[in-house]
Amino acid sequence: HRGDSAAVLDAFIAQLGRMAAPHATLVWLNPSPNQTGPALERIGFALESSFRVDMGGFDVSLERRRRGPSV
Prior knowledge:
The chain is of the alpha+beta class. 35% of the residues lie in helices and 35% in strands. The protein is built from two helices and three strands; from the N terminus they run H-E-H-E-E. The chain has a three-stranded antiparallel β-sheet, with helices on one face. The protein is globular, with a radius of gyration of 12 Å.
């Protein structure tokens, strides 16, 4: 999927939804927060903090998300 980060991120989130523990914490550099945010919320990962990071040519969001007990 070279150049198709949307498909890779979708696959990552789908796998995370299946494999993550009920109270898991995800800390990552998110290249597409507008795309992935709603999908992560759907699988129970609420945003706790977010900071924009300049990667020297593009920005990412450094996010900390926690999965709630109801998942």
